[in-house]
Amino acid sequence: MAYSSGFNPHPRISYAGAAPTGAASEAEYLEIGLAQETPADQVRTALDTALPPGLDVLDVVPATPGSLADRLEASHWRLHLTGVPRQQAEAAVAAFLGTEQLQVERMTKKGLRSFDCRGAVVTLRVAESAPPGEDCAILEVVLRHGVPSVRPDDVLAGLREVAGLEAGPAALSERLAQGPLDAQTGTVGDPLAPDRDAV
């Protein structure tokens, strides 16, 4: 790994769009500066070997010019709401989508902050069915990245506010993808596509 110059060198590594604490994710990205040119497969193997089980490096590609963070425009999340009946979830989603603006509060480093959680929601729906043996409703939501950053728990707070939906402490948030947003389809693309195309 390459290091910055100066009296206090730091590793040249940057994390883009990290998931909130406590959330599961299949789509985390980082950029690493290397001290010498190294084949991508060799970098992936070395990183994957050094990381603990369950934290897997899926792909490594050489970076092209431009900011990776700028490509991360939205995230696709799956929310597991244990003990919530499907019909109740559908009614709550319809009420949420029927609002133009929905204020929620979250404690931040600067104190309690109020902001609109509705504006960041590109799509929100109840998934077709829960996995066998699971007593829960599953929501699929695409969130546009912005400031302030709207998180899955903010969407759950909005559902509670507008429809009284109580997801409970066992709700699981899982990020499935993050990347460029296709505004027409409401889907999230591959942020590494420009790098793959350049190889």
Describe the structure.
The chain is an alpha+beta fold. It folds into two domains: 13-69, no CATH class; 71-187, Alpha-Beta Plaits. Helices cover 23% and strands 29% of the residues. It contains five helices and eleven strands; from the N terminus they run βββααβαββββαβββα. It has helices spanning 40-50, 68-71, 86-97, 152-163, 193-198, and strands at residues 13-16, 24-25, 29-32, 74-82, 103-108, 111-116, 121-126, 136-144, 172-179, 181-182, 187-188. It has a five-stranded mixed beta sheet, covered by helices on one side. Strands 1-3 form a two-stranded antiparallel sheet. Strands 5-6 form a two-stranded antiparallel ribbon. A hairpin with a 4-residue loop joins β10 (181-182) and β11. α3 (86-97) crosses α4 (152-163). The chain is elongated. It starts with 12 loop residues before the first strand and ends with a helix. The mean pLDDT is 91.
Question: Order of strands across the widest beta sheet?
Answer: 2-9-4-8-7
What separation lies between the terminal Cα atoms? 21 Å
Beta-strand content bin: 25-35%
Helix content: 10-25%
Sketch the major β-sheet: 5 strands, mixed
Name of the CATH class of the largest domain = Alpha Beta
* Count, helices: 5
The CATH topology assignment of the largest domain is Alpha-Beta Plaits
Q: TL;DR of this structure?
A:
This protein has 199 residues and is an alpha+beta fold.
Key words describing this protein structure:
alpha+beta; elongated; 23% helix; 29% strand; Alpha-Beta Plaits; five-stranded mixed β-sheet; two-stranded antiparallel sheet
